[in-house]
Amino acid sequence: MCSKRILKIGTRDSKLALWQANTVKSLLEQLGITTELVAVKSEGDLDLVTPLYAMGVQGVFTKTLDAYLLSHKIDVVVHSFKDVPTQLAQGISQGAVLPRASAGDLLVFKDPAFAAAFLAGEDKSLTGKVATGSVRRTAQILEKFPQIQIENLRGNVQTRMQKLHDNDWDAAIFAAAGLERIAERPEQASEIPWMLPAPAQGAIVVVARTDDPEALSLIAPLNDPDTATAAGIERDFLSTLMGGCSTPISAYATVENGQIRFQGSILSLDGKQKYTTSRQAALSEHTRLGAHAAKDLLQQGADNIVQQIRTDIPDKMKQPAKD
Description:
D-Maltodextrin-Binding Protein, domain 2; Double Stranded RNA Binding Domain; 36% helix; alpha/beta; 323 residues; five-stranded mixed beta sheet; 10 helices; 13 strands
């Protein structure tokens, strides 16, 4: 493929975001497409103190880039797919989903004894301090360990690692894909076997303007159908349950031998209530799998958790932020 057009690629300016954008840039240039990177700071990058649930959440890492895209300052945007609202902004279309990296969550720890107990997930009396900025991770931790103290953790990978080093915390949680992509996974880190990931975690998506068919056609060859299908199912599950990315909703789908395997869950913010589901279907029948799994949970009583979250998160937004 060859195009005379210089495709402007928009990205956040963190080390991880730039790695993702440069990966897309390299892949496009291998196709004969000339590209240019445009780095932009998002609202989520500028405010590193306020918890995500108190920032309006929907699109906190994407809306600035959306505005650049819709105003024709850039042609495509590269995102971590888990940061993208389930409803794309009007005028923006999904163009490609790259092959998925690890979808798991990593515990980065100081004391191996604490880590061993945490990773086992069995000792309800375990105490300590674990840092995360994720409501989803917090709820899953509190469900396993109600006495663990959660510390708010925001910032890019390097900032969060430094905060872990500087504070009396026992551990912090990171997305495995993020650390591995920029070669910053420390020696004392282990994937958490019982923690279900965020919908589309580990996947990279490239979007373009809906009215720019040329840009959409240029990025289309980068699409990995299996990853796009799995992430789509997970996002349908999230959307049907609630639609927000800062919620204690987890989902993970895999494609293997023509079959889709899916796991999903929703927890109350304090981890005391939990609904889970698992499904398997032929790949050819995947279309409504995520939505149907979500509806099953709602019928089981998960709608009570959804209503509680809709009440509790706005209440938290009224509270002063803590560093």
